[in-house]
Amino acid sequence: MVRTAVLASGTGTNLQAILDAAKSAGPFEVVLVLTDVDGCGALARSQAQGVPTEIVTWESCGGDRSLFTLSITRILQAYDVELVALAGFMRILTSEIIEAFPHAVLNTHPALLPAFRGAHAVEQALEYGVRVTGVTIHLIDEEVDHGPIVAQMAVDVLSEDNAASLRARLQEVEHQLFPQVLADWADGLYRVEGRRVIRLPAPGLSS
Ligand code: GRF
What we know:
By secondary structure, this protein is α/β, with parallel strands linked by helices. The protein has six helices and nine strands; from the N terminus they run βαβαβαβαβαββαββ. The longest helix is centred in the last third of the chain and has 24 residues, at 163-186.
């Protein structure tokens, strides 16, 4: 079982999907949920399921991004974490976490990167008028929403869509894709070659 931490700031629907997947199938277990927002939905969900939680607020680190990242990294190390899932974690982290967990910090983003990086991807996709957007699961690097892409799934933008309806369909996809990628990662099915992430065939399957 790969020891996995989930970092989340919001309602935690992705966290919930990850917890459900870990419980039913593995091959990863969620050993820690860490949030920067005391009282957020993600915290309540993890407490309800008896998963250990930690809170590191931006304010407690004096708004120092490096100190914030280091505090989080030290906690992850104390829990012997091997895999880190950023599931709606709304703070930018610095390179310390990448160095501590190379090729092991995954983020979900509600757009087809490299389009619409940042916190307003759903609104920007609508404003731009794209007909197709989607979900990207990627490794983090030093730039926001920029690291090597692990998996993507497209979602059609409908004429009647608003941000709420489009976000809801994107989240349905995230709830399937992110746990699946974490499971495949835990199974050792990915190899990183520069910016490219190669998916290896699952053992026992002929190509
Ligand atoms: C997700 O859609 C994620 O892509 C974005 O924030 C959202 C978090 O939602 N970065 P939730 O807290 O998992 O419900």
